[in-house]
Amino acid sequence: MSTGKLKIDWAAQYMPVLASIKKQFEKDKPFKGMTIGMALHVEAKTANLVQTLAAGGAKVYITGCNPLSTQDDVAAALNEVKNVHCYAKRGCTVDEYYAAIEQVLDAAPSITIDDGMDLIHYLHTKRRELLKKVIGGCEETTTGIHRLRAMAAEKKLEFPVVAVNDTPMKRFFDNVHGTGESALSSIMITTNTLIAGKYLVVAGYGYCGRGLAQKAHGLGAKVVVTEVDPRRALEAHMDGYHVMTMDQAAEIGDIFVTTTGNTSVIGKDHFGKLKAGAILANAGHFNVEIDIAWLAKHADSTVERDGIITYILKGKPVHVLAEGRLVNLATPKGMGHPIEVMDLSFALQALCARYIAEQGDSLKGGVYDVPQEIDEQVARLKLASLGLSIDELSAAQKKYQCSWDIGT
């Protein structure tokens, strides 16, 4: 058995929610006659989502959504699955990256599933002749949702897209626990350095930043949070973390992790203030949060190790992990989010894809929330897989909850 298939099978045993959905899809064939185009991180957990969609009757065409996040052996194993075509490869150039997106779109997908919105962007800008064939899509991550909402605000989004990232079951588990654990795991395994006792700077206190701060604090780090939103900054302060500007944090931080989805969060104004040996990592989607171009231009020299580029700035080393790309996947040993977390996220993706297959033709172009019943269904399936039970409202409680005329 190939190493890729072994990885896929290993992940499958920890994905009971997706497995139950796959059984239902095998019976119902919700995607019969449909083509699904995907741009996701191609690794073992994603492969189980792909197999679930194929089991539902879809022809699936997939490529990567990050040049460094593909596991080549998993990509090869996917190409052995009936009705699946994978074009992803690790370490591709920008031209190769978009050529693979072209190959996915050549299949004229009915449904798109994106992580970062590159597939949808390319459809709307380069392959507009295919738009009329698309029923709708799903988007996995915060950065992609930001881009989609900006596109929708300008009335440029021409088909419905479900914001899978923005539903509670995604934010509370994938973003908080998934990003928090996997980013720190990759930093530790890549650098072999200690977290405890160090100043760890988290840029951005959204769901990903909160999870990262929580997990780092649990490992004994002295956590610093930088923010632009006064409410989130106050929340971080009340949660027990140091809150300051990046200018201030640059002088004391040992490890920096960006989670904002924005550009130049750590840039030219900060590099000169960093300690010798500061470690910089990005847990956002694109490689724009750390100004790598400035470092490359102004460094006296560079030293490259596995997953680390050291820039020497006036004799001072600054270490950047994974080329400033998604640290939990783009480092050589990065495995991405824990399997059990992605079981929930990919269960949402599978059910939202079915929702688009069934309802997409009746929806206008725009960004749509995950239907609450889908979010709750995934939670209930997970509880059942854990052998856990919860209470139900009585008829009297339901009546009370919906009333307005019952007082003290």
From TrEMBL:
GO cellular-component term (any): cytosol
Gene Ontology molecular function, alphabetical: adenosylhomocysteinase activity
Domain S-adenosyl-L-homocysteine hydrolase NAD binding: 175-334
One example of a Gene Ontology biological process annotation: S-adenosylmethionine cycle
CDD domains according to UniProt: SAHH
Key words of the record: Hydrolase, NAD, One-carbon metabolism
PROSITE patterns linked to this entry: ADOHCYASE_1, ADOHCYASE_2
Cofactor info, note text: Binds 1 NAD(+) per subunit.
Cofactor(s) needed by this chain: NAD(+)
EC number: 3.13.2.1
Short name of one Pfam family: AdoHcyase_NAD
Binding positions (NAD(+)): 141-143, 206-211, 227, 283-285, 328, 337
Record family assignment: Belongs to the adenosylhomocysteinase family.
Protein's recorded name: Adenosylhomocysteinase
Protein source organism: Methanoregula boonei (strain DSM 21154 / JCM 14090 / 6A8)
